[in-house]
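Lab notebook page, bench 4
Experiment: in silico fold of construct C2
Operator: M.H.
Input chain length: 203 residues
Purpose: comparison with the prior construct
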Amino acid sequence: MSLPRRIVFASGNPGKLREVKRLLEGFGVDVVPQSNFDVEEADETGTTFLENSLIKSRHAAEVTGLPAIADDSGLAVDALGGAPGVYSARYSGPDATDDSNIDKLLADLDGVADSERTAAFHCVASFVDPETGDEVIGEGVWPGRILTARQGDGGFGYDPVFFDPQRGKSAALFGADEKNAASHRGQALRALVAALEARYERP
């Protein structure tokens, strides 16, 4: 069985779209953003990354009638009981920005020792085919710790305060290829593609 020739990506993020296209190029499929079909953002009402990922991929698949891929990700900080978790994007409120989220995180961890500032980025990528009912999942985890101040101005989200001890720098100092190799999202998408390879034939 071959992978469907056209797949909707349930995000308008151009960086994510490029990564998905690159990983799926061997299948000869056309990956298009859901904005091309005027698909509105799904309400992320889930309490886990898996639930929210599936909400988004199922929504895009239902509206377009095409197979869809989505991902959901966030930061879990051990000293905060796993927060901000699924609320990472809006941690500092409904009008949250990357900077306001980082400011709140640093304030919430004020006085917490370096050894207690462990954290991990989590990502779940999902594929849904409305024709067959197939649902395929890939997951990724990127462990690290939270710095006491920003380091670097690259990346997005919590990257400036997320320190990768294996590479000795914050995520904001990673190049694009280096980040894709290490990150939770890169891991999840590669795991998803591996699962698709096990199920579908390449052309």
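Observations: The longest strand covers residues 135-146. Residues 180 and 186 are 5 Å apart (CA to CA).
Next step: discuss at group meeting.
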